[in-house]
Design brief:
It is a single chain. Helix content is 34%, strand content 18%. The chain contains 18 helices and 19 strands. A hairpin with a 4-residue loop joins β11 (316-319) and β12 (324-326). It catalyses: (8S)-3',8-cyclo-7,8-dihydroguanosine 5'-triphosphate = cyclic pyranopterin phosphate + diphosphate; GTP + AH2 + S-adenosyl-L-methionine = (8S)-3',8-cyclo-7,8-dihydroguanosine 5'-triphosphate + 5'-deoxyadenosine + L-methionine + A + H(+). Keywords: 4Fe-4S, GTP-binding, Iron, Iron-sulfur, Lyase, Metal-binding, Molybdenum cofactor biosynthesis, Nucleotide-binding, S-adenosyl-L-methionine.
Length: 628
């Protein structure tokens, strides 16, 4: 029966041959389909020999004319990270080891594909670099005659240790997944420390001649869409290709279009700073739309699977770690090549089954509105977990439990994707503050060294951030020995609300109520809660906290000023600033039904006094003390 099936596929394979062979194949296919007689081995062999004169294998060419010369192989379902969007806090179920492809099976399947015309293989996971025999496997695959490119997609954690051996074995292309450049955010997303190791891996890859090193960054609204400019800056001096990937729907990742940042929106954000961003020409099968900042060494790109699919030029097939062939990343149809091999199928029979699967490949995926409702593997089980945002595992047959460490950081926040801003900010406010302060300190230190400008009387002294220790970790300042004095602080802000909203506020016609009075109360309340909102602030006893709001009719602005007073060992700058900030946000909330363009301007500290570091007074412009 298998031989009969092979012969039927011979019709497709022979389509690129001369007319004589085509007619002979079609006649034999008709006989086989009617009589169901097996095809003689001599005929079958001659047909497979004829493939050598084909420009490309018919088995790997679908009914839409797409030639599939690129195979992605998942080597493992395991990973050394525990990403929030990929791994549930309670653990996952892994396929039993005996159900996964062995090294010899991977090589045998890969060999069959390469003989049919595949010239590029990418190794994925899970995390492929954690496979114990990864160097050996790379070496075996690289010996396949006809394979031009052997690539890997990795999270980068083990590159410093394993890349030299993998490169020597034949790995000649590298993609590294990196969704953030902020250490606390990296730790939040992955439940592991390790950003520094990833960055070291990138630098090592560049030193070893990988050109370019591709960086895969899944962009998700509310999580890392504020880092687009930072990623572009990586291309200034490094030969990297940063590819911004639209967030895609897969099993368990709670996808919705509000979390996705479409390509054109990302492009608009980037062009606000890099207005001379230039479009580059793409190769025929490129998944990424390439751009370049003139003068920068690297480039950026956008993988637009959702907003502008590239199905028409798709040349990729995927082999999962448990041996299933997927002809479409978003399709739920799979064909088990593992079972064929273990049932004794020959290489020819294996390729025939592949040809049937490729022949059924659809013209394009179901589209953004339909994909979320379709049943599909989580990405980590498909084999692209390091390059695209993924979901949690689904149960399969022959599985065994695999749980995350009980000491995982932030394990109670697996559902942050439901409300990324709230969960992320509430959990990591202190870490983000420490990171920002530490990075700011580094930037200022570098600037000081370049310009020889110092803010302290003694040029040998260094400005130190009291909330950050020498490791860059957040800490609360010990104020036990600090003297008690009367401490005062004044802060200010301007909220521009536009002419129509200003008129309504001035006439007290806003439907929500008296804007100025509500904002005043909100500001006082916020100021008193400062230590609960800003994690490293000490709870102090306020002797006075006032918030005053006035209207600037010339500029359609609400002017807000707060004053805070205490007698104690620490200042009240943050209390004054928090009061102004909360009052400003309240004004915007009160007028948002009238205008969505309201904005906070010039929120700053005006003055402080009573501290051991001396008094501070901001210089004002007498003509316009509160510039709008």
């Amino acid at each position: 029966m298998a031989a009969s099936f092979i012969y039927l596929k011979g019709n497709r394979m022979s389509s690129g041959l001369c007319l004589k062979n085509f007619r002979f194949s079609r006649q034999c296919a008709t006989v086989a389909s009617v009589t169901k007689h097996p095809i003689p081995s001599t005929v079958r062999t001659s047909l497979f020999e004829n493939k050598k004169i084909l420009p490309f294998s018919s088995f790997l060419t679908d009914s839409h004319g797409r030639q599939h010369n690129y195979l992605r192989i998942s080597l493992t379902e395991r990973c050394n990270l525990r990403c929030q969007y990929c791994m549930p806090a309670g653990g996952v179920d892994l396929t039993a080891k005996d159900k996964l492809l062995s090294t010899s099976e991977i090589v045998k399947i890969a060999s069959a594909f390469v003989e049919e015309g595949v010239d590029k293989i990418r190794l994925t996971g899970g995390e492929p670099s954690i496979r114990p025999d990864i160097v050996e496997l790379v070496g075996l695959l690289k010996t396949l005659d006809g394979l031009k490119t052997l690539a890997m997609t990795t999270n980068g954690l083990l590159l410093s240790r394993k890349l030299p051996a993998m490169k020597e074995a034949g790995l000649n292309m590298l993609n590294i997944s990196l969704d953030t450049l902020i250490p606390p955010k990296f730790e939040f997303i992955t439940r592991r420390k390790g950003l520094e190791k990833v960055l070291q891996g990138i630098d090592l890859a560049l030193e070893m001649g990988y050109s370019p090193v591709k960086l895969n960054c899944v962009v998700m609204r509310g999580l890392n869409d504020d880092e687009l400019h930072s990623f572009v800056e990586l291309t200034r001096d490094k030969d990297v290709d940063v590819r911004f990937i639209e967030y895609m729907p897969f099993e368990g990742n709670k996808w919705n279009d509000k979390k996705m940042v479409p390509y054109h929106e990302m492009l608009e954000i980037i062009r606000r700073k890099y207005c001379d961003l230039r479009r580059m020409e793409d190769a025929i099968n490129d998944t990424s739309k390439a751009y370049l900042v003139p003068g920068y060494r690297g480039k950026i790109g956008f993988i637009t699977s959702m907003s502008e699919h590239f199905c028409g030029s798709c040349n990729r097939l995927r082999l999962t770690a448990d041996g299933n062939l997927k002809v479409c990343l978003f399709g739920n149809a799979e064909t088990s090549l593992r079972d064929l091999l273990r049932n004794g199928a020959s290489k020819e029979e294996l390729i025939a089954v592949v040809g049937q699967a490729v022949g059924r490949k659809k013209k394009q995926h179901a589209g953004m509105s339909n994909l979320p409702s379709m049943k599909n593997r989580p990405m980590i089980l498909i084999g692209d977990s390091n390059s695209l945002l993924t979901g949690s595992f689904i149960a399969t047959s022959s599985i065994r439990p695999y749980c995350t460490d009980k000491g995982d950081h932030f394990s109670n926040h697996n559902d942050y994707l439901d409300d990324p801003w709230t969960s992320y900010r509430e959990t990591h406010a202190s870490l983000l503050q420490a990171s920002s302060l530490f990075n700011a300190s580094t930037r200022r230190s570098n600037l000081s060294q370049e310009t020889h400008e110092h803010t302290t009387p003694n040029a040998n002294d260094q400005v130190k951030l009291t909330h950050v220790d020498h490791h860059g970790q957040a800490r609360m300042v010990d104020i036990t020995e600090k003297p008690w004095t009367v401490r005062r602080a004044t802060a200010q802000a301007i909220v521009w609300i536009g002419p129509e909203a200003f008129r309504l506020v001035n006439e007290n016609l806003i439907k929500k109520g008296d804007v100025l009075k509500v904002a005043e109360i909100a500001g006082i309340t916020g100021g008193k809660l400062t230590s609960q909102l800003i994690p490293l602030c000490h709870p102090i006893s306020l002797h006075q906290l006032s918030v005053r709001l006035s209207l600037d009719s010339k500029n359609n602005c609400v002017i807000i000023e707060s004053n805070a007073v205490t007698h104690g060992p620490t200042g009240v700058e943050m209390e004054a600033l928090t009061a102004v900030a909360v009052a400003s946000l309240t004004v915007i909330d009160m007028v948002k039904a009238v205008t969505k363009e309201a904005e906070i301007r010039n929120l700053n500290l005006v003055s402080k006094s009573g501290g051991t570091r001396g008094d501070f007074n901001r210089t004002k412009n007498d003509d316009m003390p509160f510039p709008c």
